[in-house]
Design brief:
Elements: E1 4-5, H1 7-14, H2 18-26, E2 36-38, E3 41-45, H3 46-54, E4 66-67, E5 73-74
Organism: Paenibacillus roseus
Domain Helix-turn-helix: 9-56
Region (Disordered): 55-75
Length: 75
Amino acid sequence: MSALWDAAKLADFLGVSPSTVYAGVREAGPGRIPHVKVRGRILFQQEKVVEWLENQPSNKIPTGARENEKGEIVQ
């Protein structure tokens, strides 16, 4: 079995806030972060999270696109 992480550890790994992790747990569909509940605690198996990440659509900026001063992607 792979290591179990709590939301804070997963948030650190992903570079997001714990509230973003919990939002990912509540999400429906393939974007939902895989997790297990153990005695009321939400935990994440490292192996399952890495597998889930590898199967997520890419959010890469298209070639030739740039960010404007508002942080929006423009062509």
